[in-house]
Design goal:
The structure holds 2 protein chains of 2 kinds. Chain A is an all-alpha fold. Chain A has 3 helices and no strands. Chain A is 67% helix and 0% strand. Chain B folds into 3 domains: 605 residues, Up-down Bundle (Amino acid/polyamine transporter I); 57 residues, no CATH class; 29 residues, no CATH class. Chain B is 68% helix and 1% strand. Chain B is built from 28 helices and 4 strands. In chain B, α10 crosses α12 and α14 crosses α24. The longest helix of chain B has 41 residues. Chain B is globular and about 75 Å long. Chains A and B meet through α1, α2 and α3 of A and α4, α10, α12, α15 and α22 of B.
């Protein structure tokens, strides 16, 4: 196993954890907003994360967990 | 109008290669041998390895063949049809998510304390009945329900179960489904909270560690809101480290002069739980709920993985008999009633859980990248949860049966000293000495393990046995026990938070029909009122459960099981109706057979709970007996005074009425669904489906965890990376692929 393999494996784990925890949501949002118009105005990370929790406040059924 | 199938390419049915025939024959053989060993061994201790082999072999075959059949032949999933995630992609709640990530999301959302509690209680009938139901049930019913609900909701832009019931069955069935969901939520929260109260009462170690999760969550909330928004992984790592510290320091607290402060009576804990539940429901999401959710998901996935590893390394032997006498006599102390129907309602999560249909028709369908992935996510995640239930069954069966019954019998049966418990366990047909009971409590540094009903302490004990066999030996037992208690308490409390909120939201929505402002989540009086009603609802049952002389778990758990299976009946009825309406009558048995079984179980259980003459089973028989006692001025055991006599009468009446209500709801939904199905069969032209129109998909992505050779070739041809994504000619949209 070379260093590149280790680095690649670590990168994949990092990617999976970021996706699973929703940490990458902001990057996705920016990519999505800029996909049509590269100069589109985007929220700051702080504002974006706030809007996400506010949405959950407005409808707690999103992301509901079972017994 | 049947669903359009003209665009579905005929699924190529390849003949199996000789190699795969050999492999699958071997899997089937191993599974069959394991089942035979489990079923035929009597009077000897069986290794848990056989249970693992039976479970994994069955799952593999079911996934490979049955789920594939459902996906290709019944549902006809179409890889060329765009999912709502692709069509409505907004980068936030609708977005095509990598299948492995979504599998993780979905699994974390469906698996909780349920699969850890039910199997432990069902172990009173031996390991065999529960295990058969967990494995056969998930293959033919539970995983099918999750997968089919997910499919139909995906075809309807992620509509919820309640909306689908209203759209496809009618307003009457829809309303019944809504009431059912609300009632179930209340019972569910009460039972889960009761499990925690029973585990934490008189346990300063447990109370301190769980108490510490609140400041930890608040800290994480502030960190994510103010210090470093969105950095979930790092704050979760800090949180888990603090959590482990809280468990260790719980041991110090229990030995210090603070111990008395954290030694709480069950009644006191109930009051704290109610206050906590109310605050958690009215506080902002970011402050308490969201960080708790991260913490509990981290712990959940981590601990389940650890447990699986521990079981495989330790391969413990099971001391519980395969089948105990309680299976036929129905006189078990943990819950009353015989194997049919009560094993099938006691084990809900892990085999067939109605609650999952709310997840399968909520967040997940909005994130599915490809219709072909529904099989892996819906069916696969449920198989994984079922495996968690099998592990819970193993943990309950490896501890000494005498100890198991001493922990799980209500105080009314075994008294409150180790001597009386030892004698009572002897009367049940098992044996354990008073010294052994005292030693077991001492090993995990608890004052007593007697009557710690609800499953969590038993599970924790079994888990500490497995873990200490792998790491640390006996010296670590107390740590692992409290680690397990903490882990269960953490996600039960998270469910209590989230469930109270959802209940509050549903109530506000219903009240909004009467008085408009209720619907606004920002209208504080409405929020407070609805929260108080929901918390009051489960708080009432929790209070009653703690004070019921007959034992709260014993009385309430069947009600919870009936409620959960009722919701499964609603989901399966919606699925069956949709199969019929969409021109799949030929395949309607796929959900109709589990539905028929579920209805038979639920209605038989309700019938016995309402009409049985046996005072241990029938709520109204209980009521009559204790009412007659009150009239004659007698105090009947296990009640100790007249107040307790009145408590029994009130509780039995409430439980009986609720049980009747559930039975009526199930009949209403079924009758309405039956009417719609008949109409669809008689007059197929009249059918109106609420399916989203067909749009061609531009995404290319594999269906299962590992891409097949054909899929890899397709990915290369489309010019996208090995993880899939949009075709090169389409506008490049971030679809969550690595690097």
């Amino acid at each position: 196993m070379t260093l590149t393999d280790v680095r690649r494996a670590a990168g994949r784990i990092r990617w999976y954890v970021r996706e699973l925890t929703g940490e990458s949501a902001y990057d996705r949002y920016v990519a999505h907003a800029r996909s049509c118009d590269p100069g589109a105005p985007v929220m700051t990370r702080r504002a974006f994360e706030r809007s996400r929790t506010d949405a959950r406040e407005a409808d707690p059924r999103e992301g509901f967990r079972c017994c | 109008m049947p669903e359009s199938q003209s665009t579905t390419p005929a699924q190529r049915q390849r003949a199996l290669s000789p190699k795969s025939i050999a492999v699958w024959s071997a899997v089937a053989l191993v599974g069959a041998i394991a089942w035979a060993v489990l079923a035929l061994s009597r009077g000897e201790e069986v290794s848990a390895a056989w249970m693992l082999a039976a479970a994994l072999g069955s799952y593999a075959i079911a996934y490979r063949f049955y789920s594939r059949f459902i996906a290709n032949r019944v549902l006809k999933v179409d890889k060329n049809r765009a999912t709502p995630a692709e069509r409505l992609d907004n980068g936030v709640d609708f977005h095509p998510t990598d299948r492995r990530v979504l599998f993780g999301h979905h699994f974390a959302a469906i698996a909780g304390a349920g699969p850890l509690v039910g199997p432990v209680l069902a172990a009173q009938m031996g390991y065999l009945p529960g295990t058969i139901w967990i494995i056969v049930g998930v293959i033919l019913a539970g995983a099918v329900q999750d997968m089919v609900t997910l499919f139909f909701s995906t075809r309807r832009d992620g509509r919820s179960l309640g909306q689908m019931a209203r759209d496809e069955i009618g307003p009457f069935g829809g309303a019944a489904a809504l009431v059912a969901v609300f009632a179930i939520m209340i019972i569910l929260l009460a039972v889960l909270a009761l499990v925690i109260v029973n585990a934490l009462a008189h346990s300063p170690w447990g109370v301190f560690s769980i108490g510490m999760t609140i400041p930890i969550a608040l800290f994480m909330g502030v960190y994510l809101r103010v210090l470093r928004p969105g950095r979930v992984s790092e704050v979760s790592l800090i949180g888990v480290a603090l959590l482990l510290l809280a468990i260790v320091s719980g041991g110090w607290v229990a030995e210090s002069s603070w111990a008395d402060t954290f030694t709480l009576e069950p009644g006191t804990l109930v009051v704290w739980m109610i206050i906590y539940g109310f605050l958690a429901s009215v506080l902002p999401v970011w402050l308490l709920l969201a960080p708790r959710d991260y913490l509990s998901t981290f712990m959940k996935v981590g601990t389940i993985a650890l447990l699986a590893l521990g079981v495989f390394i330790a391969l413990p032997t099971m001391k519980m008999p395969a089948v105990t006498d309680f299976a036929t006599s129905g006189t078990g102390p943990v819950f009353a009633g015989s194997m049919f129907p009560f094993v099938f309602i006691t084990i809900a999560c892990g085999a067939l859980s109605g609650f999952h249909s709310l997840v399968s028709s909520g967040t997940t369908p909005k994130m599915v990248q490809k219709e072909t992935q529904i099989r892996m996510i819906g069916y696969g995640a449920m198989l994984t949860e079922s495996f968690v239930a099998v592990m819970a069954m193993i943990t309950a069966c490896i501890i000494d049966p005498g100890l198991y019954f001493a922990i799980n019998s209500p105080a009314g049966v075994i008294g409150d000293t180790v001597q009386s418990a030892s004698q009572a366990v002897g009367n049940l047909g098992f044996s354990i000495s008073p010294e052994a009971l005292a030693q077991a409590a001492k090993d995990v540094e608890e004052q007593s393990l007697l009557s710690r009903t609800g499953g969590a302490p038993t599970f924790a004990l079994g888990m500490s046995e497995i873990f200490s066999a792998v790491v640390g030996g006996t010296a670590m037992k107390a740590f692992w026990y409290h680690f397990a208690i903490m882990f269960e308490a953490l996600f039960i409390l998270t469910t209590v938070d989230a469930g109270t909120r959802v209940g509050r939201f549903m109530l506000q929505d219903m009240l909004g029909n009467v008085y408009k402002p209720f619907r606004q989540v920002s209208w504080k009086p409405g929020v407070w009122f609805a929260s108080a009603v929901v918390v009051g609802g489960w708080g009432y049952f929790l209070w009653v459960g703690v004070h019921d002389p007959l034992g709260g778990i014993n009385q309430l758990f069947p009600l919870f099981g009936i409620a959960n299976q009722l919701l499964a009946a609603v989901a399966l009825a919606v699925c069956t109706t949709l199969l019929v309406k969409s021109g799949r009558l030929k395949w309607a048995w796929v959900t109709a057979v589990p539905l028929a079984w579920d209805v038979a179980v639920t209605l038989t259980a309700s019938w016995q709970k309402i009409f049985s003459d046996d005072v241990k089973v029938g709520f109204f028989a209980q009521r009559d007996k204790y009412q007659a006692g009150i009239d004659a001025g007698q105090v009947l055991p296990p009640a100790k005074n007249m107040d307790q006599m009145h408590t029994v009468v009130t509780n039995s009446t409430v439980d009986g009425v609720l049980c009747a209500l559930f039975a009526v709801l199930i009949v209403v939904v079924l009758a309405d669904a039956g009417r719609v199905c008949l109409k669809a069969i008689r007059d197929p032209e009249s059918v109106k489906l609420h399916e989203a129109p067909y749009v061609e998909s531009k995404l290319v992505a594999p269906a299962s965890i590992i891409a097949t050779k054909e899929e890899k070739a397709e990915l290369v041809a489309a010019g996208v990376g090995p993880e899939g994504g949009n075709r090169k000619e389409a506008a490049p949209v971030g679809s969550g692929t690595p690097e």
